[in-house]
Design brief:
Elements (H helix, E strand, L loop, with lengths): L12 H11 L20 H10 L36 H17 L4 H4 L50 H10 L3 H42 L13 E8 L5 H10 L8 H8 L9 E7 L3 H8 L5 E2 L2 E3 L6 H12 L3 H9 L20 E3 L6 H18 L7 H14 L5 H13 L7 H8 L11 H5 L22 H8 L8 E6 L4 E5 L2 H17 L9
Antiparallel strand pairs: 1-2, 2-3, 4-5, 6-7
Helix pairs in contact: 7-8, 8-9, 11-12, 13-14, 13-17, 14-17
Length: 538
Amino acid sequence: MPERESASPRHDPDARLGDLFENLPAPTQQSPTVDNTPPAPGSRRAAREAASRSGGAAPTPSGSPAGADPAAPVPAPEPATASPRPAVDSAEQAESVDAERTAAQSSPASAADEGTPTRAMPIAPTAADTPVDPVPASVSAPAASDTPLSADAPAAGGRLEDLFHHEAADEEKTGAPRKKKRRTGCLVALIIVLALIGGAVGAGVWAFNTYGDRISDAMGWGEPKDWEPGIATGEVMVTINDGDTGAPVSTSLFEAGVTRTEDVFYDYLVSENVAVTFYPGIYRLQEKMTAADALAALQDPANRMENTASVSEGATIESSLPGIAESLAMPLEDLQAAIDLGPATYGVDATSLEGWLFPAVYTFDPGVTAQGVIQRMVDRTWESLDAAGVPAEDAQRVLTIASIIQREGMTADFDKVSRVIQNRLDIDMKLQMDSTAQYGYGSLHEGVVSSSAEALADPNPWNTYVNTGLPATPIASPSDAAIKAAMNPADGPWLYFVTINLATGETQFSETYEEHLQGVEKWEQWCQENPDGGCSAG
């Protein structure tokens, strides 16, 4: 058995803690209960009591005189200025002692293997510590080299860790360090924050998709309704009809490419509270003009073209003559009489002049006659036919196809419409074009797309629902683009087409009837959602 070193007595941590707790200020609440139960066999307390009964002398505490009486009371030290250490109840002390005893018994270097205790490292007393009794011989402690010390950890062997064993006990119960709890809590908080942000973003996207136009208008984010000043260019002709007010003039300016949006001119008149009278005639304006500049141009007499007249694309003789008469200050009867002279008068081999009054703006010399007006328009048609390479003997047929194209499709789809017509003619399939049925029935200019049952069933020579092949004559005045499309149809197998959106002119072309019916359903759906879109007269 190794000899004890008197210069380095071992300390009893339990005795030291007991003295420490005795010198703490008395608690304001109920005092701790003293454990009077018999000590557990083999515990340090049992060893001390056995040594006391056998009369063995206990070593003197560190810092006490060598000849001092062990039974004499130890004077209490001055209270430390630092905060008192937290008291540990007797149950917690017993739990810590039992844990250490178990570790000592399982250690290969324990006293149970050699029959003698190992030597414990002393703890240097601090100003806040009270002298404690030496460690009994039955208690072992790790050597200094086995216990690493850190700046934030208490010295090993001093048993101060028993005062803070609550955290270790919590970790043993939960099986996870306390830091993991904090990390888990942070993760949950992060998930909640991200969920809230995601919900806010989703709500914002929904609101903008639903009310984006209104929000953009209110915040000024949308496209401007008017052109910027100073970018006007080119030259366009705008026709003002008798009785036109702000709204129809606004539409005419937009369709001619003068203003940026359809309502900007009318909105300008309202916002500026402008009282203006529009005089009928043809006016020379520019593209991309502001609403204010367009108004000034319409009020300038220099922009009103004298002795001018126009024919619109897709117009008929019946719809064009009144405007021509008004623009030229010519009696309508004179113009109608000039038409009645017949096509041969104007060098046309046909039964009617329908389709031969080319759509354009014309300027006539003063004193022009009605017959001179009609001749000028027919001559312009021949110019367009010659430019498209149409043989003279095929002029009437090409004009008839071009007139259907003009009435049935958008300019971008002219060549596809031409292909559908040609494909049907090639297999002797009825054209079934609503425009032909409406023209023969006299309802072409009613402003609706669908035909009435009466128009579809009327047995007139223009109704392609009743007759196979082309109608008897052209049904309208075709433009240069329509004439070119009639001569150059696109490549494709289509036999059907239907405009599924009248606002944009979107058209579906189909090869089979089943596909066509799907397009008809889309058109009917659009008509239901847009009852004022011009689908029917009802």
